[in-house]
Amino acid sequence: MNVWLLPLIAMAAVQAFVGLCLFAIPVIAPQAAPDLGVDPGLLGLYTAVVFTAAIPASLGAGGLIARWGAIRTCQACLLAAAGAALLSASALPIAFLLGALALGFAFGPETPASTQLLSRLTPPEKRPLVFSLRQTGNQFGGMAAGFAVPLLVLSVGWQASLMVVAGATAVLALALEPLARRHDGDDRAAPRPAGRGTLKRALDLVAGEPALRRLAMAVCAFSAMQLCLNGFLVSFAVTSLGWSLPLAGTALAVAQGAGLVGRVGWGLVATRWAPPRVILAGLGVAMSVAAALVAIASPGWPVPAFLAVCAAFGLSASGWNGLFVSEVARLAPPGRAGEATGGMLAIAYAGLVAGPALFSLLVAGGFGYSAGYLAAAAAALAGVAALVIPLPPAPTPDLSTAAEDTPCA
Predict the structure, then answer these.
(1) How far from 314 is each of 143, 227, 308, CA to CA, in Å?
(2) Which of 157, 250, 322, 351 is geometrically suited to a Cys-Cys bond with 263, CB 3.0 to 4.6 A?
(3) Can you give the pTM of this predicted structure?
(4) What's the CA gap between 37 and 201, in Å, rounded?
(5) H/E/C letters for each residue in the chain?
(6) Which residues form the signal peptide (predicted)?
(7) Per mean pLDDT, which of 51-55, 176-180, 263-267, 331-335 is the most reliable?
(8) Whole-number Å distance between alpha carbons of 262 and 342
(9) Rounded to an integer, what distance in angstroms lies between the CA atom of residue 336 and that of residue 366?
(10) pLDDT given at position 188
């Protein structure tokens, strides 16, 4: 058996369960919002808090991996995500906020840790496909949230549903222990404090490479679009289209299923037929069109037609992530894939913070979900521009002037 296969399955499962803890929140939003005393649209601010916390957590991922190892870092992320679900289940607004912070600290190091592990175990020629397969974990988590969580909510209520999600996530953390003993010794280096120096190194690594900078700008916009798709689709279908909660959950599951197909499919296309940057630009245009179609949807639309739009939305807005991670692993210096991924994700998470926050404010301000999806479409087109419009060259110092201005000894 290939040495990377079992770690790949494990890392995809980690992403699936951390994602499930996040996706469960928008699914339970229509039921939970009255108990919390807020508008369902305002629960989009939950994801803004999550990814605000994820920014420093992702930047510090390199230090955590060096100290604990990649898999033990993932175990810590799973336990933090389980704790976040339990806190949210309390129905106390302050506990909901603390849960969002805990989930952010789970999201930050999880992808850098898996990137570090898989980049070490996977041959370079297999990395686009392996990383695309690993990124399907997010879609499995989203589909589980779309199909299973609504049924749990109707059976046992939204609070008990979050408790079930928390328990399953904690069980996975314990199940990873044999893999941690086998692989983490190779990942650990001399311990380094996860402080300011570590955070700055991760950002400097991204800022110092033009290809990473361009990718970071696009990914920031695409991430905002992806969270607007995942975070508001269920509430939009319930409140604007008049759908039942299980049917609205099905729309999210369809989008996530299409994203799963896209992550693998676009990875195969990138290895055989087209450069990743070209594919990413095309996906940016496609997700903008899909978001605009969602924005104009009305209760009179046939259910299959809206589900088809959701599938196109997921194929594009949730299908680009594998290409992104494999490109970071390719461009990163040897042994620094996790650190580079952490720096890139910090920039991506800025989009994850701004996108849902702006969307929630538009909904709360009376502009509606349609305005939010149109704003997300405009942001995605800006990301396409970052990929296709050449950046101006970095200024070079005038050495002759500097020499004239320097006093002689």
Answers:
(1) 11, 11, 10
(2) 322
(3) 0.72
(4) 42
(5) CCCCHHHHHHHHHHHHHHHHHHHHHHHHHHHHHHHHCCCHHHHHHHHHHHHHHHHHHHHCHHHHHHHHCHHHHHHHHHHHHHHHHHHHCCCCHHHHHHHHHHHHHHHHHHHHHHHHHHHHHCCHHHHHHHHHHHHHHHHHHHHHHHHHHHHHHHHHCHHHHHHHHHHHHHHHHHHCHHHHHHHHHHHCCCCCCCCHHHHHHHHHHHHCCHHHHHHHHHHHHHHHHHHHHHHHHHHHHHHCCCCCHHHHHHHHHHHHHHHHHHHHHHHHHHHHCCCHHHHHHHHHHHHHHHHHHHHCCCCCCCHHHHHHHHHHHHHHHCCCHHHHHHHHHHHCCCCCHHHHHHHHHHHHHHHHHHHHHHHHHHHHCCCHHHHHHHHHHHHHHHHHHHHHCCCCCCCCCCHHHHHHHCCCC
(6) none
(7) 176-180
(8) 23
(9) 46
(10) 53
What does the pLDDT read at residue 361?
Answer: 87
Q: What Cα–Cα distance (Å) separates residue 64 from each residue in 67, 70, 97, 306, 338? A: 5, 8, 24, 43, 10
Tell the burial category of 214 from Cβ atoms under 10 Å away from its Cβ (0-12, 13-18, 19+).
Answer: middle
Q: Are 220 and 347 in contact (CB under 8 A)?
A: yes
The CB density around residue 137, as the number of other CB atoms within 10 Å, is 27
The average pLDDT across 390-396 equals 54
Quick check: 54 and 349 in contact, CB under 8 A?
yes
Rounded (5°) CA angle 24-297-307: 55
Checking if the pLDDT of 375 tops 60, the result is yes
